[in-house]
Design goal:
heterodimer; A: 207 residues; mainly alpha; Fumarate Reductase Cytochrome B subunit; two-stranded antiparallel ribbon; 6 helices; 4 strands; globular; B: 341 residues; elongated
Chain lengths: 207, 341
């Protein structure tokens, strides 16, 4: 295994700024989203305040996602999201076994972080599904709810707005779950807080 | 040949986004039905088969003059045939009357028999109009419509309070054209429009508004400027949801309150115990769910309101998924801590 003793400069400043913004926005969106979904006159965040905050955060998220999207179209960072098809399932299985068995036997991670590949196979598939599936979907459906008149009135018998609402909530919920798991997996580093530091200073510390 | 997948997902999403935009534009353009062209006003011929109604022949004695915008009579002095315009208020469209709830009645059931002579005697103009409770009060057949409750709610309303007896049932419900709607119409949007047009008949038309007051009519759009997505609210919510006291029943709220008592808090509707679910929406949603099951009933209904969660099943499912995720994380973390020490 290729061990790095020197910290690796992996996260350029634009990635870190984007990641920070994204994290903050997601937190705001989850909290306000929950208070809209389960609103009642006694909630801490009042419905109209929650709606306004959710709308503003959603609009900023759209801009921040556009930055991420364009960045990954044209900078080397985008290469991390390309999944090599050949042998992918085998590598995925390897990583899964590491997280469920190997990690408890103090084995080395099967895909250590290098400059060329900063994501392990499991991260890759999650991040692609999240960033190119759920996030664009939640943004689009969010705009559909922000301007109800642009949403199609009915879709194969379903009320367009209700369907958009349900899918938006489902996507938002899925993102929240992924975020919980993401935060926990970040504690799997050299030290529990190493990965959090990396996203601040840009340097990755290897196991 | 080895297949190398080296296309960045962002490009794939970009292409998909463009396809989505294209599909969306196509659906949207086919979705928006062409706006109805306004026909120049012309008398509509009667489309209704009048032989089906036992009193129709007798009613024709009245409707031959009152059934359209002009009437003809022979002047006994000059022996000439005279054609005159009928006052708009005195015209009754057969197409509307014969689909209304009172279609089986004959004119003289409510109006004086003396109308049989022409010209009508002047004192007939003073004839009192019957109100709903006059016929429907205490009638067991109509018990489920609770006319007595409607009457007492109406007496307590701002309409009765401010205008006393000048404000009668007729202000909103014309007995000649009234047709039951909320209970029978499956299209929620139509019911909403129907009910809101009743209010707008005066609150949207200064000529009718000033029949009862000399005040200038408030501009409804301006008064509701604070309401986000105003157009959406106006087409999806009935005025009376916020401007009347709703009981937990389908009985249409007649206790219209003054503007200071109107609902202004978003949470009153957008919450779990939303006032919207007290009457019309509750009735419609429960009807749909009974017919089509919980998921389809909720999805295919028109009763959309963002926020309040309508499905407890989905809540439970999401809670289970969330709980399971947290549990797995805790177990994993505990084992990691144990093994690492």
């Amino acid at each position: 295994m290729n061990h790095h003793t020197e910290p690796l400069y992996l996260y350029p400043i634009w990635i870190r700024i984007w990641h920070m913004t994204n994290a903050l926005l997601c937190l705001i969106l989850i909290i306000t989203g929950l208070s809209i979904q389960f609103s009642n006159p006694e909630t801490v965040v009042k419905f109209n305040a929650a709606v306004s905050a959710h709308n503003v955060a959603g609009i900023i998220l759209t801009i921040s996602y556009a930055a991420f999207f364009i960045g990954n179209l044209f900078t080397p960072n985008g290469a991390s999201y390309v999944i090599p098809v050949k042998g992918f399932l085998i590598r995925l299985k390897k990583q899964f076994i590491y997280y469920t068995v190997g990690i408890f036997q103090r084995k080395d991670p099967p895909f250590p972080v290098t400059e060329e590949s900063k994501f392990n196979p499991l991260q890759q598939v999650t991040y692609v599904v999240l960033m190119y599936g759920f996030v664009p979907f939640v943004i689009l459906s969010g705009w559909g709810l922000l301007y109800p008149e642009i949403t199609v009135n009915s879709f194969i018998g379903f009320s367009g707005l209700d369907l958009t609402d349900l899918l938006h909530i489902t996507a938002g919920f899925s993102i929240s779950i992924i975020m919980c798991v993401h935060v926990y997996f970040c504690t799997i580093g050299k030290k529990p807080l190493s990965n959090f530091k990396s996203m601040i200073n840009g340097y990755h510390e290897s196991h | 040949m080895i297949y190398k997948a080296n296309i960045r997902p962002a490009w794939v999403v970009l292409v998909l986004l463009m396809l989505f935009t294209l599909a969306f534009t196509l659906v949207k353009t086919s979705d928006s039905s062409p706006s109805k062209t306004v026909q120049p006003e012309q008398e509509k011929p009667t489309k209704i088969d009048l032989t089906k109604f036992k009193n129709a022949a007798e009613n024709e004695n009245c409707l031959k003059c009152h059934g359209q915008s002009k009437y003809t009579y022979e002047n006994p002095e000059s022996k000439k045939t005279v054609t005159k315009r009928m006052y708009t208020e005195l015209v009754l469209d057969r197409n509307v009357f014969y689909i209304s709830n009172h279609r089986e009645f004959k004119c003289t059931d409510c109006h004086s028999e003396e109308y049989g002579t022409f010209p009508h005697a002047g004192n007939l103009r003073m004839e009192a109009k019957a109100n709903c409770i006059d016929c429907h009060g205490g009638d067991e057949k109509y018990a489920k419509f609770k006319f007595e409750q409607i009457e007492s709610e109406f007496q307590a309303s701002v309409h009765s309070e401010k205008h006393s007896e000048d404000f009668t049932c007729w202000m909103c419900h014309n007995a000649h054209t009234y047709k039951i709607n909320a209970r029978t119409n499956e299209n929620l949007k139509e019911t909403i429009t129907y009910d809101n047009l009743i209010c707008l008949n005066c609150h949207g038309d200064v000529k009718n508004y000033q029949l009862l007051t000399n005040k200038t009519k408030p501009n409804i759009l301006q008064k509701h400027e604070w309401l986000p997505n105003q157009a959406s609210h106006f087409t999806n919510v009935r005025c009376i949801e916020c401007h009347a006291k709703n009981e937990d029943t389908l009985v249409v709220a007649h206790h219209v309150v003054s503007k200071s008592q109107a609902v202004r808090k978003c949470e009153s509707c957008h919450s779990k115990n939303s006032i919207l679910y007290a009457s019309l929406y509750k009735y419609k949603v429960s009807e749909k769910i009974q017919k089509e099951g919980i998921i389809m009933g909720l999805l295919t209904g028109d009763a959309t309101s963002i926020g309040p969660d309508k499905s407890n099943t989905l809540n439970i499912i999401s809670l289970v998924i969330f709980g399971f995720t947290i549990l797995v994380i805790i177990i994993h973390a505990v084992f990691r801590v144990k093994k690492l020490n």
